Amino acid sequence: MSSPHTTSASRTNTLFLSPQDVASIIGRQGMAATLQGMATYIRQDFLRWESFDKAPRVASHSPDGVIELMPIADASRYAFKYVNGHPKNTAQGLSTVMAFGVLADVATGTPLLLSEMTLTTALRTAATSAVAARALARPDSRVMALIGNGAQSEFQALAFHHLMDIEEIRLYDIDLAATAKLMHNLQANPDAAGLRLIACASVADAVRGADIVTTITADKTNAAIITADMLEPGMHINGVGGDCPGKTEIHHGVLRAAKVFVEFEPQTRIEGDLQHLPAEFPVTELWQVLSGQKPGRDNANQITMFDSVGFAMEDFSALRYLFDQAQTLRLGAPIALIAQLSDPKDLYRLIRPMPARSERAATQVDAHVALTETA
Ligand SMILES: NC(=O)c1ccc[n+]([C@@H]2O[C@H](COP(=O)([O-])OP(=O)(O)OC[C@H]3O[C@@H](n4cnc5c(N)ncnc54)[C@H](O)[C@@H]3O)[C@@H](O)[C@H]2O)c1
User: Is the pTM of this model over 0.85?
Assistant: First the structure.
């Protein structure tokens, strides 16, 4: 990767991508290709799991939400995401999830990319869910229940339609307006052509007969939205909204009935639906399945569950993807986030008071005289 839109004069410039820039990438590539592209980068990075310096994210909890920092690095790139989760935000016109992120050069520490990640998080979460489902769900899955029809939901629907061949989605949200919004957005969207959408009256109604169940609700409570009595042989549960201590969606009976897969076990034990189960409850990390080291689903009747919480590596992959696309499409703006110095040891020069014009002229005359005298 080279520096963004650079000349030698702007070696420290950072490429800035706004939400409009990311929307332009989707507009230029198409939604299906964007989701597929991001899924490819995510899968590639899962396949080189050992090359990452990994740690659970750092969370700062408050009564109504959480703010998290998600750092990760390989030998050449460092990335972090700032992200919040405040389920009550929508009542005051703010998003539940808001994010931005940075991709930097490990060799010099130069920040290469500063990007919006609210839209990007929805894309990367949907792409990750699809990568997991491709490895874990039954390949003949065609019907999905989508519980929680908020900001992330269209992206999940489109990722499963394009990357998993899902043909019918059964929708449920406690907020009827959210379901109507999701219906409206997808019905008017050529990207969702051929996708059947059915609004359901209850969770049980939506889940009945589904091959895949995606839960992507937001509520800071230990909810039990999916219970063991709703399970049918061969179902795959894509549990996305339970991602914080004290914020879960799936009854522990579902996990006990399933083979459970996670992103990064130390983080999911703290944040996932897994938090309700003892430390010795067995789980498999997704990278082990993708790399062929461990089996995924054992048979067509088994219940599988991806207990997703969102791991920093997925944001690293997403930022890599955006950086590459933005340079190819020449999108984004180079910004001088970092001070540019002709003498890197002279940072003080940035704040050194400039002499007034008359003083400057006098100084130049003095210097000229001094030079002439010494000549
Ligand atoms: N695992 C990950 O990687 C990841 C990534 C992004 C977001 N998330 C999580 O996904 C969730 C959804 O995010 P969002 O941005 O779409 O939030 P949002 O607030 O826009 O939408 C959440 C929806 O869930 C609905 N809901 C709440 N309780 C429900 C219940 N009991 N049954 C049915 N519906 C219910 C709400 O009415 C709302 O429409 C959040 O919890 C967020 O933290 C996880």
Answer: yes
